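Sorry, any thoughts here?
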Amino acid sequence: MKFKAFAFALLVCACGSDSGKPEISTPYAAECWGNPCPAEVMVADQGQVWSVAADGEHVYWVGGTPRRVRRVPAAGGVVEDLTPAENEQPWKLALDAGWLAWTIETTESSPLWAMPIPPNATRVHLPGAFYKDTLAVSGGFVYAANNDGVWRVSPATGVSERVLDVGASPLAADASGVYAVDGLRRQVLHSAGPGQGQVLATLPREPSVLRLAVDADFVYLLYRYATRECQTTLARVPKTGGEPVTLLTDARCGMDLVVDGTYLYWLAFAEQPQMRSFLSRIPKAGGDAELLAGNLPPGGGLAQTATHLYWGEAISPSTGRVLRLSK
């Protein structure tokens, strides 16, 4: 189904307050770094947008009422529904060359679906039931986790194999296999296939690891300690194994991260004086952090292409937007 097209729009700020900080002309505008502000609105009125994915051609998200998997051309244009308007309630997306996968919001274990890219009428219901927040796609496989372990599922054949025997979360994947965190044992894990699991590192104390990202050499982690309110740590572990190295601690509540050839980007929120999100980056070897956009409505689902960052707003069912920012 295709429907109303949206034009790109810049979030407009009124700059030049007496305090030296910009005055925001709308409660849903990005912090003003000049005029106009850097963030672009791709689509609006998408409800609570918590999951976003992107490739060089399209941006995908979960949104609308009822929720559906949707996409829009990266250059702007017509919004397209990829799942029906039935009340399936898709939840989390993962995308890699060849396949788009998603989980379903349920009170128990989530069904798992996949669709070939470019999309066609075929949606594949994959075997098994999994955690709704744990999903990765790479190398023609969909990775998901449940109480029995981490599983590798081929959407082309329907074959499902257990690659780790712990119900680890979160996940990241690349051509070498899947990376995961066993929260009980505080271990960063890798598996190239069934029976090939290995421990890469043991984390200090007992962090709550929310997101993983990988590049050619390292596994990057975003985690918090429950005893430190929302303080976030960004760290990395060599793929060959070794001690975790802290890159940054941030007083804000980290939500999501991605990595490219130069930077580690993360989305975080602060609750005072009101709940707002902040998009920042740091050189992936460590260094000074740089705020890219701030004073954003709460959101998540950070995704990237070679040229842009994408994320969603989740402030209320009537104002959710998908935003992008040039790197």
